[in-house]
Amino acid sequence: MTVEAASLKVVKPAGGPKRSERSALASVGLHGALIVASLIAVFPVFWVLVTSFKPDAKAVETTPKLVNDSSLDNYARILSGEKGDFLAWFGNSVLIALLTTVLAVFLSATTGYAASRFRFPGKRSLMLSFLVVQMFPFAVLIVPLYNILLALGLQGTSLGLVLVYCTTAVPFCTYMLKGYFDTIPNDIDEAGRVDGLSPFGVFWRLVLPLARPGLAVTAFYAFLTAWGEVAFASAFLSAADESKTLAVGLQVFVQQNRTEWGHLAAASILVAIPAIIVFYLVQRFLVTGLSSGAVKG
Fold first, then answer.
1. Of 232, 12, 13, 268, the residue nearest 139 (C-alpha)
2. Where is the ABC transmembrane type-1 domain positioned along the sequence (predicted)?
């Protein structure tokens, strides 16, 4: 091929729609599909909200009557302690979820940073083991974890349950943070060492502030792991009513012969509020943290 032929520019026809343009019919169809999908996703939550204002006898009606049946009796009975010690359950859940979040994020951040910056024997095997752990159903871990907590004297305690939640949250969070730390240039670490910072000082004062989106994602995941979990909380906490978490306490509304749907729906709405608040606080970091953490493995 000659230089003249190689320098020729291909002239595209001026007519015809561009690839980035979308026809009006396609745009209407796309927006219509999104609206339908949104309604399908929101409708169950709306129905639970409507049911939470209705008495148990009318909660199973297929046609909601908001004007005639609406009341705050379900919420009043739950918060007053008439239907279980809800405030104690709430306090237990908040304590366990916060401890799990702080401990899991700290362990995941330190482990992910070490796997990202340092070379040591067994590094690849360690990261692979984090993925393998996620393949097993959590129910399989109940018996061995129960025996471990029993040997440590932590069975039936909140601290024992926090450690159990960390065993499920730390592997996933570590792998995600390791990928996020890989996107932070090593020059920042070297500049910190030149200024006299220790390896931990570089991690704590320079790297962590840059990793806030990744930390927000892992913190949100760790919080949800502890907030809505039922199986581990039922197996590892004391059967006493004041020791239950919210997810376990909701079982009091499901009895053998009847289900208190109105009270159960009201309690479910109350349980969802803290998770919504946490999501609102970290939502601006979620997209950045998820996309950056997936760049490198």
1. 232
2. 90-282
Write b or e for each residue in 33-46: b if 16 or more Cβ atoms lie within 10 A of its Cβ, otherwise e. eeeeeeeeeeeeee
Asked whether the beta carbons of 268 and 59 are under 8 A apart, the reply is: no
**170 Cα distance to chain centroid:** 13
Asked if residues 154 and 160 have their Cβ atoms less than 8 Å apart, the reply is yes
CA-CA-CA-CA torsion for 131, 133, 135, 139, nearest 10 degrees?
A: -160
Alpha-carbon dihedral sign for residues 13, 14, 16, 20? positive
Percentage of the chain with pLDDT > 90?
19
User: How many angstroms separate the CA atoms of 104 and 107, rounded?
Assistant: 5
For residue range 98-150, what is the model confidence (pLDDT) as tens digits?
999 999 999 999 999 999 888 888 888 888 888 887 787 777 888 888 899 99
User: Which tokens go with 85?
Assistant: 């010690």
Q: What is the residue type of 125?
A: S
Which two structure tokens, joined as six digits, stand for 176? 């995600």
Structure tokens at 190: 């070297």
Helix ranges restricted to H, 23-85: 24-52, 66-69, 73-80
Full-model pTM: 0.80
Placement of tokens 């969070």 in the chain = 173
Task: Go through 78-89 and write b for each residue having 16 or more CB atoms within 10 A of its CB, e for each that does not.
Answer: bbeeebbbbebb
